[in-house]
Amino acid sequence: MRSMIRKTKRLVPAWLMLLPVLAFGSGPYTLTNEWTLGIGSISDSSPAVGPDGAIFFGTWDGHLWAVNPDGSRKWVFSAGREVKSSPAIGRDGTVYFGSRDWKLYAVAADGKERWEFKTGGWVDCSPALAIDGTIYFGSWDKKFYALSPDGVERWTFPTGGPIMSSPSVGTDGTIFFGSDDAKLYALRPDGGKKWDFTTGGDILSSPAINGEHCLYFTSVDGYLYAVNLDGTLLWKLRTGGITESSPVIGPHGSVYVGVNDDLWKVSSEGKKVWERPGGGGGIEGSALMLKDGSLCFISPYALLIGIDSSRNYLWDFYLYGYGHASPAVGPLGTVYLPGWVSGVISMVALRGPATLAATPWPKFRGNFRNTGNAADGPRE
Fold it and tell me: Cα(first)–Cα(last) distance of the chain, in Å?
């Protein structure tokens, strides 16, 4: 297995550094490339990190990977088709993820299948986990599902469009998700509808929950929304953005979100603070907030960029191409994301400056285990 692990150097091609929006120069922090592991296929799946430090992610060739903290392969599980869904890890170590073979899978910590559940369409969204172990997810079949921990359907909720938005669970158990019918839904744990909120376009992003205050999400109508937990509008900000980048929450309630080619910082009052160019091509992934107050995001040119809260450059790492995954971080500050390194499609581990920030929603899916549950806390 160790033969698949490659130690690499930080490489940024000269042509990239000539681009005005990306010519950052030398920053105050230099990343250490801990390891890269060849995975054989592009990945749009944002990694989840387990309590033991293992890293889990899906690939477009239909596999779920489990990687040990030292970069060695732990196991690989084969699904029927592409895996865009980001995995969520249960408290017992079970890994849940969706596939384009129309199924949601539950895989035990040893890599053996526990069960699979068939839907009527692709399962691209990432599942969310309730405190009692219920698994929530949507499908392209226009239905939203709740399953028991043993894979039995508890209820379904129909919407008017395919569901690609990954659900988020509030501290009171309310489930929030968007649909291509242009609505954001709030459901009770028993599947009953609390309310829905109508926008002017498909909702692809995953809602970020700001504690007991509100939640943030985007729509392809070109707005960033802040909606109170009772379903009333707090504010909306015209961005013009149409990507599926999901918001994350920084200190003092600030919101960070990809808007077409740029990363925006928005105040808790809904005012644009600044934008940071990413270089063109559209930012699809979410930013990652770190404990030292910095953040990082992946640019359309496959440059992982670290900045401070005032958008000043700190560090970068070039990946020579990538999917649209959001970066993840482990408890020791190691940043994980897929990309091309030295001509090999790989999972990359970079020793960064800090671990995950203790804000209400510091990364895509909210926490290390990707549970999408505000009650778990950002570092669980």
Answer: 29
The Cα–Cα gap between 178 and 186 comes to: 9
Closest listed residue to residue 176, CA positions, set 254, 247, 73: 247
d(CA 355, CA 328): 10
Q: In CATH terms, is domain 46-312+358-376 a member of 2.130.10.10?
A: yes
b/e for 257-269, b at 16 or more Cβ within 10 A? bbbbbbbbbbebe
For 251, list phi and psi in degrees, rounded to 5: -60, 150
The closest alpha carbon to 205, from 170, 164, 237, 171, belongs to 164
**188: its two tokens:** 């009770």
pTM for this structure?
A: 0.92
Summarize pLDDT for 182-221 with one digit per residue, the tens: 999 999 999 999 999 999 999 999 999 999 999 999 999 9
What are the structure tokens assigned to 168, written together? 């988020």
Q: Please enumerate in sequence order all residues whose Cβ is within 8 A of that of 192, keeping only pairs 6 or more positions apart, or say none.
A: none
* Domain boundaries along the sequence of the chain: 46-312+358-376
Q: What is the rounded distance in angstroms from the CA atom of residue 179 to the CA atom of residue 171?
A: 22
Alpha-carbon distance 123 to 23, whole Å?
A: 39
